[in-house]
Amino acid sequence: REEVHKKNPRVKDDSVRHTPVRVYAVRYLDETMVVTSGSKMLTLEVRDRILSVLERGLEVKVDRFGSSVHSAVSEKMEFLGMEFQAVPPSVLHPPMSEKAKRARKMYLKRKAAEAQELKNARETRRKKLGLKILNHLFKKVRRGHEFEFAFRIEDEVRQEFKGWAEETVVEYFKSQEHRRHWHRLFTSGDFLSLNRVRDQLPTALVDSYDHLQETLDKFLMPRRGHDITEDEEMLAEEEDERQYEKRIVEDLTELKMRVNAPIELVRKAVKLAGFTNSMGRPRPIKLLICLDDADIIKWYAGVGRRWLDFFCCCRNFKMIKIVVSYHLRFSCFLTLAEKHECTKRQAISHYTKDLKVTNENGVPEVYFPTEKEIKMMGDKNLSDPKPVDGALTMILVRLAVDDTSLPCLAHFCAGTDTALYRIRLLQNRLNVDPLNEKKWVQGLSAIHESLNKKCLPLCSIHASDLLLGKITLRDIDCTQFVDVV
Question: What GO cellular component term, any one, is given (predicted)?
Fold first, then answer.
């Protein structure tokens, strides 16, 4: 990459449009994606050099069949379960449609009307308060009362009235009718514009009058309404043409990388796990009924937060937010309603829309992301990707064993206040082979079947982290599983 950039330096002349050859690379574990802005021959050369270094220098095996070259413009490249494609800038930032422009104008007009109403209400209250004060003072003065103050407020009152006067003048001069009226009063019956009168007056007086007339014309001369409208329309048209020209040039000379989440695969995974029925509507997962209420909410929260964190950099992140906020949330409500044999409305009224649940100390806690929190989520950089597969394809069932002195199997944990949990896997519950691509979701990994129904002691903190997806089975010592009949 450094060699290519040294051979193709950037031109610092702004008058010349220069697009040098560039190489970009991103790696996660043993997967690497290299993107070049040059020719296909350069891409093949870079790929061959990388493969030779890996095989000869590092002596590692490389999947040459999977190490293929694709066109980033005409094809979608898959990496980390996401779809990458090079598109023009107008695809990522499309121009506003006429409907959107009209909606924005109506919104701005409504906001301006609301601001004017608030201002009028504020002025009305101010006038009423001033009249009350003046009326009170007038009554006191008529009765012979004298007012003595320990402090002087003349400067503050003068400054306040000065601010009110300036605001009134500014608002007054915004009206074309008021300006036209005063301009007509000042300029009517103007005898100093006659030449025979001006010749008989001193030059200083004539110059002072001309300066006054220029000032009046500058501040009070009303412009015709259609002239202002035409100027505004011309400026708007020029700005639109300038933006259109800039957008066309960028589309012809630049390409941006678009990252999309495979929304169809996400919906298929949601349906496979049992969040939705055949019609795509939320449904309860009966396997989770044996868990505590807090563990049920934590399991749903682990899946939802993993998806929100993993696909935070995608262009269609809004679709992921809908899946989490609607399908997962209401599937959790239906599961809780199924467990307590109540209706969905009763479950929502008990746990609220935010799925609040009380802990051991009676303090309400929220594990599932709230609707407001999901709505405020925006584009982020993917810094530490943690796939959702482990949280989606596994649940932990707590066993009814109270007396256990076994240590927690989480790495670097010495806690002995533990509870026994049994691992249940998704593929065994559905009786589906993950190697069968027709029945399984493409790209969704599965936990090995040898871990199904294994028992492991965990402390309350690490059990909660495993349900929430903060840790995975890689953080557990899988060689110390407990055999429970």
Answer: mitochondrion
